[in-house]
Write a structure and sequence with these properties.
Radius of gyration: 21 Å
Number of strands: 13
Largest sheet: 8 strands, mixed
Structural class: alpha/beta
Distance between the termini: 28 Å
Strand content: 15-25%
Helix content: 25-40%
Order of helices and strands: EHEHEEHEHEHEHHEEHEHEHEHEHHH
Number of helices: 14
Length: 348
């Protein structure tokens, strides 16, 4: 550990979670204190470096910070993420599958370097253009010298790589991490990925063949390796329950992209209800005579308006031909991306 032993508080009366936490914290080199319920945990809550809460805990003590990780069991299903949202937990660890990830996460919590920024992008409705926007943001960041990786979070999307480039670029794809156990060496991870437009990317294969799906622990290990390897990690979350229930929780900030129309804005409001409780901003695509004003949409959703993406000719054809990077070099796109990422003053 790069500093004094990490003080970890577990709030749970579940014997299984207590035993798993003891084993994991020992592997991480931390010091664990266990409280069976909230009343017992109150006095040491804010003094702990990390607070773990079991899924048997349903309410938090008043005026205490949100827990770092919610611990639960695979048998509890999607209810774990709903509970995490209600408690304001930053992460979810499904045990025993996520044991290796949690040990690594706790070890990193004791490090003075939190790693890169993980920024998620999600479309408020189908066809909003989240993948296209994510590619252009990655391209702009890389153009400013920021080490950047773009992660394809939608395995039903046909493969992000097909929109990035028409060339076959060597490197690993998601199925190559299906058997991953424990942490991934950040240098090896960075060097294993394909590169286009100055940024690395991790895509689902753009083929019709069946692929092996990485487990939740492997996905968490990949994101942690990305955070330790790059300054900016852009995640094209996708709108599936899979992406919303896993990758969205690893983000530090989420950008919601919606079209400038009423129906799309309503759909975006529903997506917001499924997102983890974290910093979020709004991007609006297109603005015209029949459109709803972007500031009105932002106000109705309760999100800060971070940018308006102009309608660009040839995007659909560019996506099919793998030429989005060519379009991304246009000044209107560059200005949009630089404003969203605040590149003049560094990524925020």
């Amino acid at each position: 550990m790069p500093r004094d032993t990490l003080g970890i508080l577990l709030v749970s009366g579940d014997p299984y979670l207590q035993e798993e936490a003891k084993r994991i914290v020992a592997a991480a080199g931390g010091s664990l204190r266990t409280a069976a319920d909230v009343m017992e945990a109150v006095h040491g809550w804010d003094n702990a470096d990390v607070v773990l809460v079991g899924s048997d805990i349903r309410e938090l003590p008043p005026r205490r910070r949100a827990p770092t990780v919610l611990l639960g069991k695979a048998s509890e299903g999607d209810g774990l993420w709903r509970l995490a949202a209600s408690l304001g937990a930053e992460r979810v660890a499904v045990l025993p599958e996520a044991a290796a990830w949690l040990a690594e996460h706790l070890s990193m919590s004791g490090s003075p370097d939190p790693g890169g920024t993980v920024m998620g992008i999600i479309g408020g409705s189908g066809g909003a253009g989240a993948t296209t926007t994510a590619i252009w943001l990655a391209q702009a960041a890389a153009g400013h010298g920021i080490s950047t990786v773009l992660i394809d979070g939608d395995r039903w999307g046909g493969g992000l790589e097909l929109a990035v480039t028409a060339d076959e670029v060597p490197g690993l794809r998601w199925p190559d991490f299906a058997e991953t156990r424990g942490s991934i060496d950040p240098s090896q991870f960075r060097d294993s990925l394909p590169v286009a437009g100055g940024f690395a990317y991790l895509s689902w294969p753009g083929t019709r063949e069946p692929v092996h799906i990485p487990a939740a622990g492997a996905v968490a290990a990949v994101v942690d390796a990305a955070r330790r390897s790059f300054e900016l990690i852009l995640v094209d979350i996708g709108r599936s329950e899979e992406g919303l229930g896993t990758l969205a929780w690893d983000c530090d900030k989420i950008l919601v992209l919606t079209k400038a129309h009423l129906k799309s804005a309503v759909a975006a409001a529903r997506v917001l209800n499924e997102l983890p409780p974290m910093d979020a901003g709004l991007l609006v695509r297109g603005s015209g005579g029949t459109s709803v004003d972007a500031p009105v949409i932002a106000e109705s959703l309760g999100l800060p308006l971070l940018g308006i993406l102009p309608e660009i000719r040839g995007v659909a054809a560019g996506t099919e031909l793998g030429r989005l990077l060519e379009i991304g070099r246009r000044k209107t796109i560059s200005r949009f991306a630089e404003a969203v990422l605040e590149l003049s003053g560094g990524v925020q």
